[in-house]
């Protein structure tokens, strides 16, 4: 569970400024609680603990991180194609890994899993407040569809491409590039670990 060493009142102000509702704590030890997306935060005297399947939904707001550039890596995996699927993603800056995640997403195709991973990674980068993203993935088809070099006749993939382009448009600058699997090894590992854990 991620925790943020932060004065609970400062944390409360940051969340309220972002439109997040604050509720009373459930016990005498909890000062307050908040929820956004798939994350919830619980404030204690000197720390705020963030829980849930997507803690990045709150972490960036609590840390007050705004602006800057990040490298975003994504990978989707499907065993059976379609079959059990999972995603992995990593956000990296000059300070190292800022956030990462991996989870099962049910049964789907490999291409849909790749798009899902890319969407989650971009949402996390946006929620962390980055202005610029350089996106890297080892799924050449997805990269070329997003750039417009390739088209798709699959309605589901068309919808996902539109969603990815909407997310990319929220950044001041972005790039997306195909890289070898060895360069994308952390995101690949997170996706496969999530599949193995399932």
UniProtKB/TrEMBL annotation:
GO molecular function: nucleic acid binding; RNA-DNA hybrid ribonuclease activity
A family per Pfam: RVT_3
Domain RNase H type-1 stretches: 66-196
Signal sequence bounds: none
Protein name: Ribonuclease HI
Taxonomic lineage: Archaea, Methanobacteriati, Methanobacteriota, Stenosarchaea group, Halobacteria
